[in-house]
Amino acid sequence: MQKLLIVGQCDFDFQRISFVLSKIYNIEIHRADLFDDAIQSALDQPYDLILINRLMDLDRSEGMAILHELKSNPQTESTPTMIISDYQEAQDAAVAAGATPGFGKATLDTPKTFELLSNYLTAQNI
Question: Is residue 96 part of a domain?
Fold first, then answer.
């Protein structure tokens, strides 16, 4: 089973993202709320994909700080990582910093998002 780490989402969005993705992909979903939790989780075990909110729900810190830390660490630099944001400029900045193209919450359950995610996660046999 593949592992997905979701970082910085409020309870509602974490549940929504988890519900939608677990119906399509055979994944074990983990959660981290803040910078230190996210980095430690990524170091403790390998993930097939990490999804980072643009702004952390709990402290409003920038998800880009987590992305920069992950991409600068040899242990996590090759882990596919996406920023979740509806803002194109945030997506562009994330890709420039080493993220893979991500998506926004408004497009969570669209074919384009599933196409992006399917580059890293395997769909369930239904």
Answer: yes
